[in-house]
Design brief:
5-stranded mixed sheet, alpha/beta, single chain, 15 helices
């Protein structure tokens, strides 16, 4: 019914855009993002399971035993393993990989990991793998607190005091796990780690994943609305493709490649465009012309942040600048 209603409202263009564009082309072409390596989802999965990821060490012994003396897997374990591997393999061979595509695989991974932790805690004296995993979990949170403090220069929308509180909270969470490691209350370990996970998630959310004031996309939308004097066509190029439409409340064209960007900006009528500063530079340089810059908004894109930016942050290189331009 949804597709029928959308076709009646917008014509067959919606069907083509969704089934061909958002499915086939996203899977098989680099139209929406650059090709990513086959192993792209491995760090995504490892990060998605944090702070529980180090406890995957508990799987080493069962896997080694199963390899040395193959036997029939428990049907429940087999189903969960298939649930993990099928989407992981399917999306790994695609071209247009996005981190969110693999998130459903975290559910069976969490179930298997929880079962391994529960089994390890049945003994009063946890083994070496449990102790090492607990230590690595604590160390990872302490390292995260340090890295978060280092990127304070990139979090342009977050006050320094908020960053300090967030880093302190994550460091305290890691320290709590470290203290627990030296105690004998092994059965309380899952509660300590779960509490540390909640504290870490909230600290990240209120420091770098959101801001106290309007988000960059909201500020850009306000700028576009204020600069739009009539019904000028508006477009986006590799930025805010879906979000801007929601906040501006009027249609926006998605310019997926430089050729379409050039055709749009060279229109005889006045048009508005939202694009990254580097894309604007690439457009203007060979043409020896400058478009009218209406506004610029600095933007720390956490969805594409690289490890290098966390270790050696450089605002000049790691911050994106969103530019609102007009051809007239």
């Amino acid at each position: 019914p949804w597709y029928a209603a959308m076709t009646l409202e917008h014509g067959t263009g919606y069907l083509h855009g969704f089934f061909v564009g958002d499915n086939l082309e996203r899977f098989a072409t680099d139209r929406f993002n650059e090709p990513r390596p086959l192993w792209f989802y491995l760090p995504i999965v490892a990060g998605g399971l944090m702070p529980w990821t180090p406890f995957a060490l508990l799987w080493i012994r069962p896997i080694r035993h199963w390899i040395s003396s193959p036997r029939r897997l428990d049907p429940r374990v087999l189903r969960l393993t298939i649930w993990i591997l099928l989407p992981l393999v399917f999306f790994s061979v695609s071209v247009g990989k996005q981190p969110r595509y693999i998130m459903p695989a975290l559910v069976p991974l969490a179930i298997l990991l929880g079962a391994a932790i529960a089994e390890a805690l049945e003994t009063r004296r946890p083994g070496a793998a449990m102790r090492v995993a607990t230590g690595l979990t604590a160390a990872s949170l302490l390292a995260l607190a340090l890295l978060l403090w280092r990127v304070r220069s990139l979090a342009v929308d977050t006050p320094v005091v908020v960053m300090a509180i967030a880093c302190g909270a994550i460091a305290a969470a890691g320290s709590a796990i470290l203290i627990h490691l030296r105690s004998r209350a092994s059965r309380a370990l899952p509660f300590t780690v779960a509490g540390a996970a909640v504290v870490t998630l909230l600290a990240l959310h209120y420091s770098v994943l959101s801001s106290a004031g309007p988000e960059p996309v909201e500020r850009v939308a306000d700028l576009v609305r204020s600069q739009r004097t009539g019904s000028e066509p508006t477009a986006t190029h590799h930025l805010l493709v879906r979000n801007l439409v929601f906040y501006t409340r009027f249609p926006s064209v998605d310019l997926v490649d430089p050729a379409r960007l050039a055709v749009f900006l060279e229109s005889s009528d006045r048009v508005l465009c939202v694009l990254p500063a580097h894309a604007l530079h690439a457009y203007e340089t060979p043409r020896s012309k400058r478009l009218r810059r209406l506004a610029e908004v600095p933007y720390f894109n956490v969805s594409t942040v690289k490890l290098k930016a966390l270790v050696w942050p450089d605002p000049n290189a790691d911050l994106e600048t969103i530019v609102v331009v007009s051809n007239k």
